[in-house]
Amino acid sequence: MSSIGNVLWFIFGGEIVALLWLLIAGVFAITIIGLPIARACIEFAKLSAFPFGKEIIRDTELMDQNKKVTKGAVAVINIILSVIWFPIGLLFTLIYFVLGIISFVTIIGIPVGVAYVRMGKFVMFPIGARVISKMQAQAIATAKEIVKRTANS
Q: Which of 36, 37, 45, 63 has its CA 20 to 30 A from that of 27?
């Protein structure tokens, strides 16, 4: 089902939105401080092109628990960049939520509305997030549970 949804999404505008996000990423990549924002925009371009069957996961969830100093430094940098991104993210979030509400009006548009709302939540604070498949997300969750259980034993 997600393959059909992704093909239809891509044909009916997903490719244009993904290209626009790649263009925004290029603008942010010009500056050194904008490189993490450019990386987040590239992740969002992946989600904008094919939103169905994808999950959003934070970098801090992927880091090893033993690297607490690195995790703290990454969190501070992500907060600073999120403050810089906030006005842009707020505008895009409102746009995506309005598109989601419009899509929810029709029954056939409900899956599209869900995708818009999920994208709206992501675009508000995209710094430090990765777009992965649902299968990868399940594998990460399983691996974390195994590590947690072995640590408690």
A: 63
